[in-house]
Amino acid sequence: MDRDIATVRGNEDRMIVEGAPDSPTLRYVREQLTAEHVRWLAGLGITGTVFEDILFCHGTLERDDEYLLHEVSEAGVVPRSTDDLVARLDLLAQPVLLCGHDQTAATVWLPGGRLIVNPGSVGLPAFEDDVPCPHVMQAGRPHARYSVVWRGGAG
Ligand SMILES: [Mn+2]
After folding, report:
1. CA 98 to ligand 1 centroid distance, Å
2. What fold does the segment set 46-145 form as a domain?
3. Mean pLDDT on 83-108
4. CA 82 to ligand 1 center in whole angstroms
5. Does residue 4 have a pLDDT over 80?
6. Are 154 and 137 in contact (CB under 8 A)?
7. What would the mean pLDDT of 13-32 be, rounded to a whole number?
8. Where are the domains of the chain?
9. What are phi and psi of 43, to 5 degrees?
10. For position 150, what pLDDT does the model report?
């Protein structure tokens, strides 16, 4: 908040703002937050941009509780197809998209040159979820993940 770092609202942030029923996680987080923190969370958008050409979201551009890079069904979790990603992102002006929510680090280059980066999770390397159906996501290692994205150039 103090540094005014570009930030988007995640699904857990929304649940805090909307007063979702307590879970052990939400109870712990709510105990750490002041009313000012909650007002700040309430003002966050579902997407944001930095440097004009980098778009970011928590889940997908439309939903904070959907994975962009994975599809979840009763059959399991599979990587979203390149065709599906291209169709979803075709009209975006920004060549770089950052996403999260599934907590698994990934870098995906789409035909045409668009880059999608999921930086992974600092503190949640594995979890179970019931949305849209019961499944497990695992980074495979307990270490904190983050990404550094920079522009290439001559020299
Ligand atoms: Mn999330």
Report:
1. 13
2. Purple Acid Phosphatase; chain A, domain 2 (3.60.21)
3. 96
4. 22
5. yes
6. no
7. 92
8. 1-45, 46-145
9. -85, -5
10. 87
Residue at token pair 């920079």: 150
**What region, left, alpha or beta, does residue 147 occupy, with left being phi > 0 and alpha being psi -120 to 50 degrees?**
beta
What one-letter code names the amino acid at 94?
A: Q
Cα 89 to Cα 113: distance, rounded to the nearest angstrom: 12
Q: How far is the CA of 9 from the centre of ligand 1 (A)?
A: 9
Q: What is the mean pLDDT of residues 71-78?
A: 96
* Prediction pTM value: 0.91
- In this structure, the strands spanning 70-73 and 76-79 are antiparallel
- Tokens encoding 89: 């992102």
C-alpha 141 – ligand 1 centre gap (Å): 19
The per-residue DSSP string of 84-125 comes to HHHHHHTT-S-SEEE--SS---EEEEPTTS-EEEE---SS-S
